[in-house]
Amino acid sequence: MKIISALSIFFMLFLLVSACEKEFFPETTYDGPELVVEGYITKGPGALPPYVILTKSIEYSSSIGSDILSDIFVHDAEVSISDGNNKVQLQELCVSDLQALPPFLRDAILQAIGIPNINFDSTAFDICIYTDLLGIVGFGIDVREGGKYDLEIKAANFNTVTATTTIPYVVSIDSLTYRNHPSYPSNDSLVEVVAHFKDPIGPNYYRGFSQRNDESFYPSSTQGTNGSVSDDNIFEGQNFSFGVIRGQDAFSDFDFDSFGYFWRGDTVVFRAANLDYAHFRFWQTLEYNTGSQGPFGTYTRIQSNIEGGLGVWGGLVYDEYTLTIPE
Predict the structure, then answer these.
(1) Taking residues 53-59, what's their average pLDDT?
(2) pLDDT by residue (tens digit) across 109-129?
(3) Cα-flanking dihedrals φ and ψ of residue 96, to 5°?
């Protein structure tokens, strides 16, 4: 899973959409930058160690250029995670720091933090994160189902930021199947992937990711939802099946005919994730707001669990399921 993640993609998409509309400058009450947090702690196959990206907010009417992007990361902060028994200090790590390392070690770290195969020569600005380096080698904070994790951030010129998240227990998928495209047999190359599972009694919150062949994992929406997350209000405690809409790079070419479908011969990996309510509400409101752009769009306030700043600190647990679709 890439560290250049959905908050960054949302920000870039917002700029692209705004550029297509009539210029509008609303009144602003900007009182200076706030600390923006994007942090995750994840349990699952090949999960990344806990990491936090720290940036600062900018005024709505600011012009965005490489100089602004280079200055947006917040450095030298004290970032710590506590699981109730142990407290771990995260270390700041920038892409530029890795250039001096032996290639095998540099590549291992890049892979571990989710940004493999980066081209140092073409990187316009330095990417920096705070991460549990001991977690890369398996000796960091105890990441477990049912765990509760407190985040504390102290950075110069900002308020102290705190947040709490939990990692729920995973809900397993029973099976993945596929079915013909709705216009089969005239369209016999595309198929729908369907997941089947039983929802446990009690409130549950889900998020999906899909991978096609050797592509990266991308957030995957499900039929009937506005984004990659869903609660279980309409299928509480029931056996339930849902279509997996193929996730894809937000900057790739968009094809209405193939969007959401997979091809015969594909190997599909579906990452079925569980998250707590606060983390669910962040993605629900963010994705709804992203999908409500345009002249008739309705603004939705993005729900944050960060005290003293903006953003999200989110726990996640997932399992992965693989389906190879016959030719």
Answers:
(1) 87
(2) 666 555 656 665 555 567 788
(3) -65, -25
Beta-ladder partners of 37: 54, 311
Q: CA-CA distance, 272 to 197, in Å (whole number)? A: 11
pLDDT of residue 182 exceeding 90: yes
- Does residue 201 surpass a pLDDT of 70? yes
* pLDDT mean across residues, the chain: 83
Q: pTM of the full predicted structure? A: 0.82
For residue 273, the Cα-to-chain-centroid distance in whole angstroms is 11
Q: Tokens 């990441």 map to which residue?
A: 143
Residue 298, pLDDT above cutoff 90? no
pLDDT score of 248: 86
User: What are the structural domain ranges in the chain?
Assistant: 6-16+29-170+278-321, 175-274
Show the 3-state SS of the chain: CCCCCHHHHHHHHHHHHHHCCCCCCCCCCCCCCCEEEEEEEEECCCCCCCEEEEEECCCCCCCCCHHHHHHCECCCCEEEEECCCCEEECEEEEHHHHHHCCHHHHHHHHHHCCCCCCCHHHCCCCCEEEECHHHHCCCCCCCCCCCEEEEEEECCCCCCEEEEEECCCCCCCCEEEEEECCCCCCCCCEEEEEEEEECCCCCCEEEEEEEECCCCCEECCECCCCCCEEECCCCCCCEEEEEECCCCCCCCCCCCCCCCCEECCCEEEEEEEECCHHHHHHHHHHHHHHCCCCCCCCCCCCCCCCECCEEEEEEEEEEEEEEECCC
Q: Residue for token digits 């389906």?
A: 323
pLDDT, average across residues 255-265: 93
